[in-house]
Amino acid sequence: MSQTERNQTEETTRAEEMENKDKNENEKEFGAFDHQGEHEGTGTQEVESEGKMEDAGETEASEDPITEEERLSYRVQELEAEVKNLQDQQLRRVAEMENIKKRMQRERIQLFEQAQIGAVESFLPVFDDLMRTLQAMESSDTESPYFEGVQMIVNKFNDILTEKGLTRIDETGVPFNVNDHDALMRQKAPDDSMESDTVLQILESGYKLGDRTIRHAKVIVSE
């Protein structure tokens, strides 16, 4: 090989080495840029994440604005509502007990009245017989000692029944009252001035115990 050829070969080799060196340097620069871009991207993501966390914290703070004092106030209101509900229940129970007492009192009074009426009714036939006997003796012999005895019994019987609130329905010349009288027949009034449906005669006396009629009087009324 001549000197000229060797020189050309060396120049070619140096040119290739320079080209390779430039190429490697370019690749290193590009790699540094890429690495820096990745680092910057990671930093941006971290900043965005921190921003999101701050936003979430602000959202949570805005969604939970209740303070401890407000929570205690709500609890107090709940307890007051519970107390009021318990008081209402207690008042209802007291009212129910009062109603039960009143109903039991009414029932006792009704039972007493029914028992009293039953006892008085059982004596009425005996009292009626004594009254008929006395009326019969008055028309025949009022001086008989038996008359005085029967009259005393009738008076005592009448006094006892009167004390128990019993009154006789035996008045004539009064208007007929369906609550007190039971009309068995009609007949012409002896006086033309007498109005129709006037009690002319008592066939059997009636009785009232207090305001309650326990037996209607059997009567004859005018036409």
Characterise this structure.
Helices cover 69% and strands 14% of the residues. The chain is α+β, with helices and mostly antiparallel strands and 223 residues long. Among the domains are: 74-164; 167-223, Head domain of nucleotide exchange factor GrpE (Nucleotide Exchange Factor Grpe, Chain A, domain 2). The strands form 2 sheets. It has a 3-stranded antiparallel beta sheet. The chain has a 3-stranded mixed beta sheet with strand order 2-6-3, with no helix packed on it. Helix 2 packs antiparallel against helix 3. The longest helix is centred in the middle third of the chain and has 73 residues, at 68-140. The radius of gyration is 62 Å and the shape is rod-shaped.
Widest sheet: strand order? 1-4-5
Order of helices and strands: HHHEEEEEE
In helices, the fraction of residues equals 55-70%
Strand content: 5-15%
Radius of gyration: 62 Å
The overall average pLDDT, rounded, is: 78
What structural class do the secondary elements suggest?
alpha+beta
Total helices: the number is 3
Main pleated-sheet profile: 3 strands, antiparallel
How many DSSP-defined strands?
Answer: 6
Segments where pLDDT lies below 50 for 5+ residues?
Answer: 32-43
Label the overall shape. Answer: rod-shaped
Topology:
Layout: H1 3-63, H2 68-140, H3 145-163, E1 166-169, E2 181-187, E3 199-204, E4 206-209, E5 212-215, E6 217-222
Helix pairs in contact: 2-3
Summarize the structure.
By secondary structure, this protein is an alpha+beta fold. 69% of the residues lie in helices and 14% in strands.
